[in-house]
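With this grant's support, we have settled on a layout for protein records. A representative record follows, to show the layout.
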Amino acid sequence: MSATLFSFLFAITILTLTPGFDTALVLRTAIAQGWQRACATALGVTLGCLLWGIAVGVGLGALLMASEIAYNLLKWVGAGWLFYLGVKLLLKPRQQPVETPGQPAQQQGFLACFSRGLMGNLLNPKVGVFYVTFLPQFIPAGASVALWCSLMALAHMLLGLIWNAVLIGGSHYFAGHLRKPPVLKVMDRLTGCVFIGFAAKLALSRR
C-alpha cells in the first residue's frame, strides 16, 4: 500500500509540475490581475481535477473512453473555449495595469476568474481520459473505485493548489514591471497565442 501511494504521489507531482494551459492561465491572471484573482483561477482549475476524479469514479471517464462521439463532442467544445479565450486576448489586450490610481478597475471579478479556470479544466477531455487510464492502477483490490478515485483526485487538487501558490508567489516579484501597459499588452497577446495553440493541439489530438 505504501509503495503504491508513493508511486501515485510521485507520478501526480510530475504531472502537476508539467507546464500546460492551466499554468499559463494562472500566471497570466497573477500578473495581469493580481494574486487574489489568480488564486480564484487556481481554485477553479484544481476543483476541475476533483470533479473529473469523481466523474471517473462513477463512470463518466469510461464513457469518454468508449464513446467516440462523447469524446469528440467534449474535445471540440473545449477547443472552442480555449480558442475563444485566445482570440479575446489577441483582439482586446489589457490597456491599463490593474489598480492604476485614478483609473476605474477593469479586472474581472473573482467568480469570473474562478469560472474561467474551472471551465478550462472541465472542457478538456484529456483530463478525464488520463484519469480513467491512470487512477485504476493505484486502487487496491476490492476497494471502492468511486471513493479512491475521489481521494486521489483530491490529492491532485491539493498538490495543484500548492504548486499554483508557488507560481503566484513568484510572479509577485516581477509584477511591478510586467504590469506596465505596453508590457501587459504584449503579454496578453502572447498568452492569447498560447491559448490558441493549446486549442489547436486539443482539436487535433486523438485518444
In short: The chain has ten helices and no strands. Confidence is low (pLDDT under 50) at residues 97-105.
